[in-house]
């Protein structure tokens, strides 16, 4: 993979080190680039290689088990794509991508030109992204908002402004919630639910069992970089119910990836076991949830 132009913080840390939470976006872009190169790719992201850069490759190959579960990253992207397409077909006129990272969906997906797509993330990451994609043209009405989502007052003001512009908005949190504590996730859910235009939300979720496994491997390095894994609710997808959202559809990553023969054979065999959609407890499980406002 070719190295992307360096961003303003790329000089000092060791090559493969995760410097901060924004570097996890390069990690995710690396796996999208790997999938794109396959002849049977489930999606194609022609921008992922440039966005990941050499640092994305190094992170994936130096984090403990950082390059071991490519199938899970691919399944997550695929499921988000499928749910997004479904919600837009059902009338969503705005997509609000919280902690958008290096996602290139406004450039690579078949989207209505009139669709409002709002990307929200930290200033430095969005500036790097704009540099890499300077020559690319989005297929819909793309806007970027530089904001730290932990600033509660700022995000509520932004949500209110977006609410006034949309009739049926879809919220995305891909790769965000696992880095938040349960109280932070609950507060975000309540903030979103308080605005009627926000009708649906696509979020990933991890079981407590898988969270513990992840904390023992890549999670150690991420904790040192200030980005520990935190969110693996015992309630499963029903965690969101008291906070204004209920699960409409839940799809497990392993079962999804196994349909396309992505995981190792032993995991594909495990995928044939019955899968409940509720609490998973100690069972290692992760999935993508399509939530609807109650």
Low-confidence stretches: 1-16
Major sheet description? 7 strands, mixed
The SSE string, one letter per element, is HHHEHEHEHEHEHHEHHE
The end-to-end distance, rounded to whole angstroms, is 45 Å
The tally of beta strands, per DSSP, is: 7
Rg from C-alpha positions?
Answer: 18 Å
- Helical fraction: 25-40%
Look at the structure and give the mean pLDDT. Answer: 90
Q: List the strand order in the largest sheet.
A: 3-2-1-4-5-7-6
Count of alpha and pi helical runs = 11
How much beta, percentage-wise? 15-25%
Structural class: alpha/beta
Can you describe what's shown?
39% of the residues lie in helices and 16% in strands. With 294 residues, the protein is α/β, with parallel strands linked by helices. It has a seven-stranded mixed β-sheet with strand order 3-2-1-4-5-7-6. Helix 3 packs across helix 10 (253-259). The longest helix has 20 residues, at 70-89. The protein starts with 22 loop residues before the first helix and ends with a strand. Residues 1-16 have low confidence and may be disordered.
Characteristic key phrases:
294 residues, 39% helix, 16% strand
Please sum up the structure shown:
By secondary structure, this protein is an alpha/beta fold. The chain has helices at residues 23-36, 48-62, 70-89, 105-108, 123-132, 152-163, 182-193, 208-216, 218-224, 253-259, 265-270; strands spanning 94-98, 116-121, 141-146, 169-173, 198-206, 245-252, 286-293.
């Amino acid at each position: 993979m070719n190295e992307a132009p360096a961003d303003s913080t790329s000089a000092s840390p060791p090559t493969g080190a995760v410097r901060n939470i924004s570097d996890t976006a390069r990690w995710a872009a690396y796996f999208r680039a790997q999938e794109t190169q396959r002849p049977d790719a489930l999606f194609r992201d022609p921008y992922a290689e440039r966005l990941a850069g050499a640092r994305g490759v190094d992170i994936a190959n130096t984090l403990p088990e950082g390059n071991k579960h490519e199938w899970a990253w691919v399944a997550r992207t695929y499921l988000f794509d499928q749910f997004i397409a479904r919600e837009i077909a059902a009338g969503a006129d705005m997509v609000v991508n919280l902690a958008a990272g290096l996602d290139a969906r406004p450039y690579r997906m078949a989207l209505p030109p009139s669709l409002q797509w709002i990307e929200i993330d930290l200033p430095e990451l969005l500036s790097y992204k704009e540099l890499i994609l300077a020559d690319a043209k989005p297929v819909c009405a793309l806007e970027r908002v530089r904001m730290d989502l932990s600033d509660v007052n700022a995000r509520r003001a932004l949500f209110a402004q977006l609410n006034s512009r949309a009739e049926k908005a879809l919220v995305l949190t891909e790769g965000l919630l696992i880095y938040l504590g349960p109280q932070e996730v609950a507060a975000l859910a309540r903030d979103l639910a308080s605005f009627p235009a926000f009708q649906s939300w696509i979020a990933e979720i991890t079981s407590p069992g898988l969270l513990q496994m992840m904390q023992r491997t890549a999670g150690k390095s991420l904790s040192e970089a200030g980005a520990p894994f935190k969110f693996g609710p015992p309630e499963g997808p029903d965690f969101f119910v008291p906070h204004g959202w209920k699960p409409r559809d839940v799809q497990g990553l392993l079962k999804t990836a196994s349909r396309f023969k992505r995981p190792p054979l032993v995991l594909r065999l495990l995928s044939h076991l019955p899968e409940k959609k509720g609490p998973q407890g100690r069972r290692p499980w992760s999935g993508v949830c399509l939530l609807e406002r109650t």
